[in-house]
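B., you asked whether I could sanity-check this one before it goes into the benchmark set. Here's the sequence:
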Amino acid sequence: MRALRTAEFRVSAPVDHEAAKAFCVYHIHRRGNLSTAEGYIGVTSRSLGRRFRRHTVNTNPILADALRQHSDIDVRQLMVGSDDTCFEMEQLLRPADNIGWNLCTGGGIAPASSKGSVGQRTRQRISESGLGWKRSAENKQRLLSYRLGSKLSLEQRAAIVLRNTGSRRTEATKQLMAEKARSRPRTACPHCGKSVQNHLYIRFHGSNCKTIKKDKSC
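And here's what the prediction gave me:
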């Protein structure tokens, strides 16, 4: 699908929610018209620039017509928080269908097109295709270089704290984490005989085993 031809758009995002791994409620509107009863309200974890460009490729017909007719389009950040908090705000601003440039009621995932929907079998195949895949040393180094020397701003730190405040792991999540930990491969230490996970073996066993140090001290 071809992208819509739109003029330059302006983005107002005081908090970098993507770097903070948080969500935000955003508002696409005509320049100077800040009424949330008009325009488009959405929720995203991506940067607003990237999310807006996705709207120009795959969007609802009401928003598509608005982007074609108007060149004075702005995108602004309304709030930053957890996904639940942002979807609750979207539901408050869009309590029914066909408000502003929105097609659907806020607070949930928009219906996917037949071309964009992914079935359970496809999700399973994608998951299985990644099993056993490892990044190369060059790839790891390149990813590491992106973050070297960069520091989170006070706003980014505040967004991270806001997202994690009050969040607790469910019993099902704890059980799943425990099962994954038990299924990790183990290596037996030839000195003390203990069978431990690989990261513990490297740090506390093998040539670093305490029994070796005791024998040398005797």
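One thing to flag: The longest helix spans residues 171-183. Otherwise nothing jumped out at me.
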